[in-house]
Specification:
There is one protein chain. This protein is an alpha+beta fold. The chain has 4 helices and 4 strands, in the order H-E-E-H-H-E-E-H. Strands 1-2-4-3 form a 4-stranded antiparallel beta sheet. Strand 3 and strand 4 (about 60) form a beta hairpin.
Length: about 80
Amino acid sequence: MYLCYLAHKLGIPYQDDIEIPFDFSVVFLSQLIGAKRETTSRILNQLIDQDFIYYHQKHLVIKNLNLFNRLKSIAFS
């Protein structure tokens, strides 16, 4: 959900997806969300395996802008 928040506030459209224009490492993300590095890594790998996010030039990209917009309307209304 935090990635959706970042995408909502800072994201830019990239093809049919939304890119968060910052370099994200597992360590940086774990500090942002206050979780252990191992936990953050496991969650990121699950999101990548589920084809929800991917990396593009060290930037996180949330796949399917239409799905993101529906989630955003639910979460941030």
